[in-house]
Design brief:
mainly alpha
Length: about 230
């Protein structure tokens, strides 16, 4: 157990909270991509069974392993054929943005529930201190991680959603030039998430901003509930 704790990226006692959060976050994220793509006329994801909230359909084995041991990972990307859209650029932006926005929604709903349960004394009504602590840890993890995923996925580097949004926003000639450098952009992406010095200017500031957003929304909802 001690060896495993050293190998894992997250403290082993916090691992269940991260895994539960990521299962929910990744599932809704990929479902949102698939749902809107199908809604706009592209049946690709639906034919592959991706318009579902079944986590097993969206999870990638390597992505899960990397989450456990490297601290980051991914779900199975939803295939989208923009040629099936009546307005490829506009609908492409919506489909790409749907994933990050689903994480934003989860984070805000998490803040709402957390503030409500706390302000109405429901959390503290449990006699078991471990249960109370577990509830606090879960909401802290769930809220900050979903805000982080919202921000992180908007970074304009492939294979993130932010890059796909930029692709659909810029003129075609600019898009063609972006695609020429796509392979190098992916290498840059791997550098910023794998090498600690780069993380100080990328991953960590995003986590700090995610924490600020969590405090901001919790303050709003706490005030709303009379706290």
């Amino acid at each position: 157990m001690e060896i495993l704790d050293k190998l894992l990226y997250y403290p082993i006692e916090l691992l269940p909270f991260y895994l539960i959060t990521l299962i929910i976050a990744f599932t809704l994220h990929e479902f949102s991509h698939a749902y809107f793509a199908n809604k706009f006329g592209d049946p690709t994801a639906k034919l592959l069974g991706r318009v579902t909230l079944n986590p097993a359909v969206h999870f990638d084995f390597l992505g899960i392993v990397l989450i456990l041991f490297a601290g980051f990972g991914w779900a199975r990307p939803v295939p989208v054929n923009r040629d099936n859209f009546s307005n490829p650029r506009k609908m492409g932006i919506i489909v790409s943005a749907a994933g990050p926005l689903s994480n934003l929604l989860l984070a805000i709903v998490g803040c709402l529930l957390y503030a409500g349960l706390y302000q109405f004394g429901i959390i503290d009504s449990f006699d078991n201190a471990r249960v109370v602590q577990a509830i606090h840890i879960f909401f802290d993890t769930f809220i900050v991680l979903n805000f982080f995923l919202f921000l992180f996925n908007l970074v304009p580097l492939p294979p993130l959603d932010g890059y796909r949004i930029v692709e659909d926003l810029v003129p075609r000639r600019v898009r063609a030039k972006l695609q020429q450098f796509e392979q190098w952009s992916i290498l840059i992406f791997l550098l910023i998430i794998l090498i600690p010095p780069f993380q100080n200017y990328t991953i960590r500031p995003l986590y700090a901003k995610a924490y600020e957003l969590s405090v901001f929304f919790l303050n709003i909802f706490n005030t709303m509930f009379g706290g």
